[in-house]
Amino acid sequence: MPDARDWPEVVEVTVDPAFVHSHGSEETGEDHGPEDHPEVEGGADAAPTPGTLTELSTYLTDGYWEETHRARHTFNLASSGIGSNDGVITYNVTGYFNDEDGMDVARQELVREAFRQYETLTGIQFVESTEVTNEVDIFFGDAMSGASARYFIYQGTETTSRVEINISPDFYSGQTEVGDGIYRTVIHEIGHAMGLGHMGNYNGEHVTWADSRSFDNDSWQLSMMSYFSQIANPTVNATYGHVIGPMAADMLALDSLYGDLGYGSAGAYLGDTVWGFHTSVQESSSAAYAHLVDYLSNNAVTIVDGGGEDTIDLSGFAMDQRIDVRRTSESHTAPRTSDVGGGVGNLTLAVGTLIENVIAGTGDDFVFGNNCANWIEGRSGSDRLMGKGGDDLIFGGAANDFLRAGNGNDELHDGWGVDRMWGGEDLDVFILAHDDQRDFIQDWEAGDLIDIASWGLVDEGDLEFVQRTEECILVREVGGSESLMIRSGNGEINVSDFAADVFIFI
């Protein structure tokens, strides 16, 4: 094999020289961050502040390298210039001059999965090679202890020549699965290869959140490059879970490094993608995302979706969930965060990701929509379903639900149970089920329609109107058990306001 001297003249830098702080407990089989319950010392005046996602991503691309006196670096994905790759990065997991037999076979597959994921999210083409020449960009081995990434840059430039990643066989010994700590380590080290530093001014051993953080919100919830688990950071409200892909700050950082050449999250999952149950994500793009429902309960996930009409389907979960698909802004100090599959703060949205449709589970779920035209299904359980702007369709499903739309011409379907509905501004349609229950319209305004076709009535002669208060009217089915309480959204209402064209009959 060629000697290291055969490579072009380069500068060598190592990150994560030991990284042993992330080992789990062999007795319990649990993985922990650098500190389970760190001592948080120092007064409020001395403490770092939370960073916005922009500030965090800039630290990953520039701040870390500056503070640690290391060289900023990226691959040259252009078609010309020193080290030009023309959009292709090659990697070798089978052996090179510093480790002749490369990585363990099972962990080789983890590396391949990680690169499939990176390729789908960025559009960069990652190609496996068995060559050991300077045409290969990233080498993987396991001959040394711990986990580390050693990168080389061309003299006088910020262009990466090659990267050597080492992950010892006894690092997370026995782990070979995507949801394990070993997979987080793989994507973390590849993050270094791509040009990302750590989320704070730390490297290697003896790192605690109390003493080592640069930002108060530094944790795995925001970045795979963090050393701190969710429970190691006392300011984070989230359950412990290894990440299974780049998180919100990471994607913003990768976009910053490679977006000018057209590589980034804007091109990820451009079709009408279904995330979760009944997914449309294929294993060929990412086994982690294709089997998302298998990981959500125990891992941390960021959805990265560049376009299309997209759906989060969590219908297979029976526990109560909080699902938030409002947009994540780069000026926020945290992405939009959901509590799903029994976890807390375990599902987040990347900047630029827009999810139009949500299907909740069978628990008592709380769903926040966004300013697009949302399709929101509560399914069973006593749900609180919130639209926002846009012309929304909101379905309560079984049990007693709250349905609240926002601006836009919305449709609210009450389903079975005692439901309360707010249409919001503009012209709305309230569609009632035949369930022998009393439902409530809380903000009726002139122009809103009430669809009672399911009641089987012919016209307004089949209805009885009772003026309860100046702002409230009771509508009952004559000779039947259906009823509806209607409250005004903007002042007094009278029986005379309800002409025949307000109601939709069979």
TrEMBL record:
It comes from the Bacteria. Residues 79-230 form the Peptidase metallopeptidase domain. Residues 23-40 have a biased composition (Basic and acidic residues). Its cofactor is Ca(2+). One of its GO terms (cellular component) is extracellular space. Residues 16-53 are annotated as: Disordered. It is found in: Secreted. Pfam families: HemolysinCabind (PF00353), Peptidase_M10 (PF00413), Peptidase_M10_C (PF08548). InterPro entries: Hemolysin-typ_Ca-bd_CS, Hemolysn_Ca-bd, MetalloPept_cat_dom_sf, Pept_M10_metallopeptidase, Peptidase_M10B_C, Peptidase_Metallo, Serralysin-like, Serralysin-like_metalloprot_C. SMART domains: ZnMc. Keywords: Hydrolase, Metal-binding, Metalloprotease, Protease, Repeat, Secreted, Zinc. CDD domains: ZnMc_serralysin_like (cd04277). One of its GO terms (biological process) is proteolysis. One of its GO terms (molecular function) is zinc ion binding. Belongs to the peptidase M10B family. This is Matrixin family metalloprotease. It comes from Algicella marina. The lineage of its organism: Bacteria, Pseudomonadati, Pseudomonadota, Alphaproteobacteria, Rhodobacterales.
